[in-house]
UniProtKB/TrEMBL annotation:
Pfam families: FTHFS. It comes from the Eukaryota. One of its GO terms (molecular function) is ATP binding. It comes from Ceratodon purpureus (Fire moss). This is formate--tetrahydrofolate ligase.
């Protein structure tokens, strides 16, 4: 493959930014052409990034999909165990050393962690996405589009509450359905959705009764039950809780609200799960922003703003094409957190990639956090909505994390590691392997083959690494491979690549979900908790009160 380049590695490994800057990226058009994209199917954003258009799927709709691999990890330390690095290193091995057509599909990082202790998400060492600085910062502006859309909706909520508090029903109707020059009123198309929900089948605003006008024009949002906040893509703790409406023109309509981080917006989750522009429009309009005083959910389309949100997101829906240090293609798209959303990159990026690599190729995507949360949501949420079926899951483990799970001292970001993590202690590693075993068992229950990638550190000993490998094989992993891709790039993950290829080719199990959709929220929570080993789930009085009033819970 013309875009593949072999790295000249040095030891000790330089800083990530120095490694990234030591390799000049190929022009992104070369990556696109090698991948099989036609000129009209991507738009360049400078020399090193391009937006891949969804129209690519139209041309490739009859093409067969490649192998589908998800990378998760054991329960991590605060320092992370190298899932992103392993994902990139595996793809570099498959593409640059094993001659396979491969695409890496990963999330766009938030600037919050990037400027915090965690840092960026481009991988590390000799397994990185480049240009690293562009990847970790604004990239092609998708997160900024989410910020704009989210805050437009937040502004619309407060504006609507203000007008309802200061206007009569007639005045509100005049604002929502203004008369034209012939003094005729019409409903906007989006309004019929709300009318149907209200049980009103009229098509002429002037035919509404006074009672129907009141129901139609007043959302009657309860200020205490508004769940939609403003967002900003930096860590700014002093904006987590604020008071709005303190200006003289707001007439004392103050309320407490706050800012979340931009990638925590539901719009990010929508972007990651959407399958088309029309699907995104529907999902954005259905987002619930709060509850009325009567206990009814209020949506973005009730506010009439779903279309405006879609316009702001019209470019963000297209995945961004980049490259690894060794010239393999990467699709970067969406970045929902796994602890508040589903923690996976977009469905459309995976769909495009699977068609482009063909039946003998590989698409490798990464799930956020440990596999008990990111991979679980990959299977039960992302795969359910995408209809895509994975053949293999890679679980990343480190000796460091297993020592912590075996009873070692807490690993704290920003503080030196205890000596126990720098010296051999095979028994502590074995004790901690119970965590790895449970991750393997849970992941295998979905009907996929599991390969364990042991991300080796310079302080690990052969006996410690072998202990991890033995525990993984005994737990049912197809293979467990010691990897050095951080220090050696794709060359350090060749055996992992071979193991993943074998696991995909030998996959014969039936993929299955942990729970069906047609059970209650309570039953779904209990199914997930029990899969972790919990005996049951107890709910606080606050949760029980909320579910009794607002949720179909039990």
């Amino acid at each position: 493959m013309a875009t593949i380049r072999k790295l000249e590695v040095v030891s000790p490994v330089p800083a990530d930014i120095d490694v990234a800057n030591s390799v000049k990226p190929l022009h992104i058009s070369a990556i696109a052409e090698e991948l099989g994209l036609q000129a009209e199917e991507y738009d360049c954003y400078g020399k090193s990034k391009a937006k891949v258009l969804l129209s690519t799927l139209d041309r490739l709709q009859s093409a067969k999909d490649g192998y589908y691999v998800v990378v998760g990890g054991i329960t991590p330390t605060p320092l992370g165990e190298g899932k992103s690095t392993t994902t990139v290193g595996l793809c570099q091995a498959l593409g640059a050393y094993l001659g396979k057509k491969v695409v890496t599909c990963i999330r766009q990082p938030s600037q919050g962690p990037t400027f915090g202790i965690k840092g960026g998400a481009a991988g590390g060492g000799y397994s990185q996405v480049i240009p690293m600085d562009e990847f970790n910062l604004h990239m092609t502006g998708d997160i900024h589009a989410i910020t704009a859309a989210n805050n437009l909706l937040a502004a619309a909520i407060d504006a609507r509450m203000f007008h309802e508090a200061t206007q009569s029903d007639k005045a509100l109707l005049n604002r929502l359905c203004p008369a034209d020059k012939d003094k005729k009123r019409t409903f906007a198309k989006v309004m019929f959705k709300r009318l149907k929900k209200l049980g009103i089948d009229k098509t002429n605003p002037d035919e509404l009764t006074p009672e129907e006008v009141k129901k139609f024009v007043r959302l009657d949002l309860d200020p205490a039950l508004i769940t939609w906040k403003r967002v900003l893509d930096v860590n700014d703790r002093f904006l987590r809780k604020i008071t709005v409406g303190q200006g003289p023109d707001e007439k004392g309509m103050t309320r407490e609200t706050g800012f979340d981080i931009a990638v925590g917006s539901e719009i990010m989750a929508v972007l990651a799960l959407t399958t088309s522009m029309a699907d995104m429009r529907e999902r954005l309009g259905n987002m619930v922003v709060g509850t009325s005083r009567g206990g009814d959910p209020v949506t973005a389309d009730d506010l009439g703003i779903g279309g405006a949100l879609t316009v702001l997101m019209k470019d963000a829906i297209h995945p961004t094409l980049m490259q690894t240090l060794e010239g393999t293609p990467v699709l970067v798209h969406a970045g929902p957190f796994a602890n508040i959303a589903h923690g996976n990159s977009s469905v459309v990026a995976d769909q495009i990639a699977l068609k482009l690599v063909g039946p003998e190729g590989f698409v490798v995507t990464e799930a956020g956090f440990g596999s008990d949360i990111g991979v679980e949501k990959f299977f039960n949420i992302k795969c359910r909505y995408s209809g895509l079926t994975p053949q293999c899951a890679v679980i990343v483990a480190t000796v460091r994390a297993l020592k912590m799970h075996g009873g070692g001292p807490a690993v704290v970001a920003g503080k030196p590691l205890d000596h126990i993590y720098k010296n051999e202690n095979v028994e502590l590693v074995r004790q901690g392997c119970c965590n790895l075993v449970k991750h393997i068992e849970n992941t295998k229950s979905y009907g996929v083959n599991v390969v364990v990638a042991v991300n080796a550190f310079s302080t690990d000993t052969e006996d410690e690494l072998q202990a991890v490998r033995e525990a993984a094989i005994a737990a049912g992993a197809s293979d467990a491979v010691i990897c050095t891709h951080f220090a050696h790039g794709g060359a350090g993950a060749v055996e992992l690549g071979k193991a993943v290829q074998k696991a995909c080719e030998q996959h014969s199990g039936e993929f299955k979900f942990l729970y069906p959709l047609d059970i209650s929220i309570k039953e779904k929570i209990e199914a997930i908790a029990k899969s972790y080993g919990a005996a049951g789930v107890e709910y606080s009085p606050e949760v029980r009160l909320f579910q009794a009033r607002y949720l179909s819970f039990s």
